[in-house]
C-alpha cells in the first residue's frame, strides 16, 4: 500500500536518490527476514498465541511511528520494526493450519491463508495510489494502523492456543499440580533444561535451511519467485507512468493483473492439491511429494509471464497485454508459493513454524534486496531483455520440482539428512 507513495516521500524529504526510495519500500521485507528467526523458535517453546499478540501490538506501534516519522532514518527504522512484527502471520500461519486442519483439506486452507501475503501487496497499491495522490502518504500508515487496531482487539477476544506440545505440557503441569505426581509428562517433553531448549529452537531454522537439501532447494525457488514479485512491485508504477502515460492515481490499477492471476492460481492449485491429497490418502500412498503435483505444471507460468510482460512493455504494446503477462506470472507464483509451503510443512510437521521461518528468511532476503537492482537493470538492458534475464533464471529453477517429485522421498529418508531438531 505504501509503494505508490515512494516518489512523494522522496520529495518531502528532499531527496532524488531512487535507490533510497526503493529501499524504504523493501526494508519492510528485510524485517520479514529477521522476524521469523525470533518468532518461530519462540512459538515452539511458548506457543503460537503469545507471539501473535506481542507481534500484532508491536506492528501497531511501529505503523503509527511510520505515520509521524520526520526523517528517512526514522522511517527506515520503524518500517523495519513493522516488518519484523508483521512477519508473524507469515511465520506462524502455516503452523496454525497444521495444528487445526487434516492433511486432506490442508491445501485449501493454506490457499486461503496465502491470500494475505500474496493479495495484500496486490490490492494495497490500488488503494495506496489514491490515498497518496489525494490525502498524502502518511495516511497510508494511519489507515493501516486503524485496521490493525481493530484486528488486534479481535484477536485478543477470539484467538486460542493451538500448538499441541504447549497444550499437552500445560495439561501435564495441571495434572502434576492436582495430583502431586511428578511423573506426568507431555509426550513431546524431552526433559531438556530451558537454556538448551532456547538454543535448539534458535538454531532449528538454520539447520533445516542448510542441512536439509529439500528445504534449501525449495526455499531458493520460493525466494527467487518472491524477489521477482517485489522487483515488479517497486518498478511497475514508474513503468506504467513512463511507458503508457498513466497518472499517479491510476498506477495502483496496474497491480490488478497480479491479483487476478493470483486468485486463479489459488482456486486451481488449492482445489487440485486437495483432490490429490485425498486420493493418495485413500490409496495409502500419501507423502509430502504429493503436494508438488500442481507446481509441476504451474511453475512454467513464471518465465512465460515474465517474457510476456517484459516484451509487451518494451514494444509499447497496448497496456492490457502487459497486465495479462503479470496475471500469468501471478498465477504461477501462487501455485509455487502454496505448493512449497505445504510440501515443507508436511515434511516437518512438528516443526512447521521453524521450516516456515527458514523459507521466509531466504524469501525475504531476496525480496528486500533484489528490487534495488531493478532500476539499474532495466536501464541497462531495457524492459524486454531485463525481464528475459529473470525468465531464463526462472526456467532453470523450474527443474527443481521435477527433480523432487521423483527423488524427494529418497533424499528425505537418507540417514545423513535425518536432523536432530
Oligomer: single chain
Identify the CATH architecture: Up-down Bundle
Strand residue percentage: under 5%
Judging from the principal axes of the Cα atoms, what is the shape? globular
| Rg over CA atoms | 22 Å
**End-to-end CA span:** 38 Å
Number of strands: 0
- Give the CATH superfamily: MFS general substrate transporter like domains
The biggest beta sheet is recorded as: none
- List low-confidence stretches: none
Output the CATH topology.
Growth Hormone, Chain: A
Estimate nothing, just give the exact number of structural domains: 1
Please give a structural write-up.
With 421 residues, this protein is mostly helical. 80% of the residues lie in helices and 0% in strands. It starts with 5 loop residues before the first helix and ends in an 8-residue tail after the last helix. The mean pLDDT is 86.
Task: Describe the structure in brief.
The protein is built from 17 helices and no strands.
